[in-house]
């Protein structure tokens, strides 16, 4: 006789309350599965002799003892991927990588602007050397207003 975690006998008819699973639409159930008070979603396949202990999401396939979800929406759920704790996605590391890419881009932009500024300063020095000191203000305003805009 099976007993639940509370110690009461299952399937004896002496329990009060819900004892059977809630089964969704378009569910295929193999021969002699064991399911207790759980919810089985829509479009689910349950293998023969499977012992389903947890709720099953929609569009899933469950097999084995205890029942394991092996497919979700026709895509295989790898057992290795579920237990691979080394390659768990790290959102903090991903954010650091993203920030490093932004820093590198900003450094390149800064260097480009620095070179552009150096060229303009050289050009301004050349113009200053060619014209007398009184015309500095006129050249500076004319040159920078035309190049910046």
**Number of domains as seen in the coordinates:** 2
Tally the helices: what do you get?
3
| Share of residues in strands | 15-25%
Largest sheet: 5 strands, mixed
Uncertain stretches:
none
Helix/strand order: EEEEEEEEEHHH
**Cα distance spanning the termini:** 87 Å
Rg from C-alpha positions? 36 Å
Going by helix content, strand content and strand pairing, the class is: alpha/beta
Gross morphology: rod-shaped
Spatial strand arrangement across the major sheet? 2-5-7-8-9
Strand count: 9
Helicity level, as a percent range? 25-40%
Average pLDDT score: 75
Describe this structure in words.
7% of the residues are buried. This protein has 149 residues and is an alpha/beta fold. It folds into 2 domains: 22-74, Hexapeptide repeat proteins (UDP N-Acetylglucosamine Acyltransferase, domain 1), CATH 2.160.10; 91-148. It has helices at residues 79-83, 91-130, 136-148, and strands at 22-23, 28-29, 34-35, 39-40, 45-46, 51-52, 60-63, 68-72, 75-76. The strands form 3 sheets. A 5-stranded mixed sheet has the order 2-5-7-8-9, with no helix packed on it.
């Amino acid at each position: 006789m099976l007993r639940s975690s509370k110690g009461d006998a299952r399937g004896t008819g002496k329990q009060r309350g819900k004892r059977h699973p809630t089964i969704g639409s378009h569910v295929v159930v193999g021969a002699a599965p064991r399911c207790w008070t759980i919810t089985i979603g829509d479009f689910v396949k349950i293998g023969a002799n499977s012992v389903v202990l947890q709720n099953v999401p929609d569009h899933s396939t469950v097999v084995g003892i205890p029942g394991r979800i092996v497919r979700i929406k026709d895509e295989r759920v790898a057992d290795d991927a579920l237990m691979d704790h080394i390659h768990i996605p790290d959102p903090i590391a991903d954010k650091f990588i993203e920030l490093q890419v932004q820093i590198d881009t900003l450094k390149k932009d800064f260097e480009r602007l620095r070179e552009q500024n150096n060229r303009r300063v050289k050009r301004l020095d050349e113009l200053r050397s060619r014209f007398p000191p009184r015309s500095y203000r006129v050249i500076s305003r004319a040159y920078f207003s035309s190049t910046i805009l």
